[in-house]
């Protein structure tokens, strides 16, 4: 067990050191969310009125989008970190780790924790920008939001690790990013309400971990909102969101560790 | 002396292709043992099996008394590996790369810090300790990888084509380090190479081709077994001396790009005889000691140096290679 903990720590430390070293990533981390706010949020909400809201619900699109922006930044950072093990395998460091006398599952877990740490740093910056979206946060609320974002990040990173472990080359990388990441995002209800979507879409969204993540974030952020507003925003009870999300972390974690252990 | 590596009838199949075909050998403690063969001969497959990265189809391999299949973790603890391709994290510093390695192998922090100093000192990279690896040259990276492979004081160091893609000067320097660490760390070195000159540095070499060991001995004895000297004779214009040489002296003559090539026992005294008997029909005669190239040629019927670098290899070491 000591070996496993040490391994998790080592891989986590490597992710963290790399993150600190890459200035462009830190700049991107601050820049990207700002961009969401300015273009996606302000732009869209200025261009058109938010028509999806039922009468009597006083909600701006930016407010509606805010949990979605949080989820989006975590989604991108996490899936990218998970899939980056293909690079590691091709260009180096992973080979070194795979011949070390350590359990493979601990490597996958370390990777997921490292990615989540980075994702949470990014989310923290977004949380600091909450007033821009007219969202009021308290310190305990920030803690709860980060906890949910952490679960989302773990689930998505493990998904990335599982996919990357099954991929032989880097050629499929771009395809994965396009055909996996964007659907994950759109289906989650982060950008538009999923109340009036076709049945097939509604079925698919139930398999998207991000759906439950976004739902849980909305529960937290709009906890004090009018029941009618809340009913419009969320689809599942908060406890369901947490249970499903945790279940998905465990299942995807198991899959990620299993596939990762079996490679080479 | 005890055998540190024992390999018995090792077999590895990739689908229908047999990459390693019943290989057996032993490596003694403190030895520098080389696997010499062309690309695709089964060298890398063998080294991967020994490093627990690949499961054999058949046969047994033991490292420091541990079975590579049944006790992979024990084997991993006893070996250090320098891969054919870069396996450093190039965004991290030299010291950070070594530090992470030490953590993975469960060394106490104190020991890690001491070993980092020692190892960087040994490969002359102490001044670059805090430098990001991205800025390192190919030779420096290779040295750092050797240092990293030795962090946990393994019994065996595996080097898979350690000098591919390096210039001759750097290559010689890498060999200096390998010899030094054998003296200082009393380590056993197992390496693969397809450079003949490099194999000369090994205590013993196994010549491998199509997954089989064709010969296994010291470079000196392998060359001696060939017998005598190699003479290259260039006939005067138009003369076809091949059949004549065979008829007169019973020689096995191979025409090469440089001329007619054959081996005789005592070359120095054979040359005057040749000159006296064939005189004007000869343009020039060249005498040399046999090299491992000749050994390889006589064992396999092919010259190893004719092997062109594979496409992947050229890509890998092209100076314009872009990093991600």
UniProtKB/TrEMBL annotation, chain A:
Signal peptide: none
Main location: membrane
Entry-linked Pfam families: ABC2_membrane
Membrane topology: Multi-pass membrane protein
PROSITE patterns associated with the record: ABC_TM2
Alphabetic keyword roster: Cell membrane, Membrane, Transmembrane, Transmembrane helix, Transport
Annotated ranges, domain ABC transmembrane type-2: 24-263
InterPro entries attached to this UniProt entry: ABC2_TM, ABC2_TM_bact-type, ABC_2_transport, Daunbcin-R_ABC-transpt, Nod_factor_ABC_transporter
Protein name: Transport permease protein
Species this chain originates from: Ammonifex thiophilus
TrEMBL record, chain B:
Keywords tagged on the record: ATP-binding, Cell membrane, Membrane, Nucleotide-binding, Translocase, Transport
Membrane protein topology class: Peripheral membrane protein
GO molecular function, one term: ATP binding
SMART domains cross-referenced by the UniProt entry: AAA
Domain of life, source organism: Bacteria
Compartments where located: Cell membrane
Gene Ontology CC annotation, any one: plasma membrane
Domain ABC transporter: 5-235
GO BP field: daunorubicin transport; doxorubicin transport
InterPro entries: AAA+_ATPase (IPR003593), ABC_transporter-like_ATP-bd (IPR003439), ABC_transporter-like_CS (IPR017871), DrrA (IPR005894), DrrA1/2-like_C (IPR025302), P-loop_NTPase (IPR027417)
Family: Belongs to the ABC transporter superfamily. Drug exporter-1 (DrugE1) (TC 3.A.1.105) family.
Protein name from the UniProt record: ATP-binding cassette domain-containing protein
Species of the source: Ammonifex thiophilus
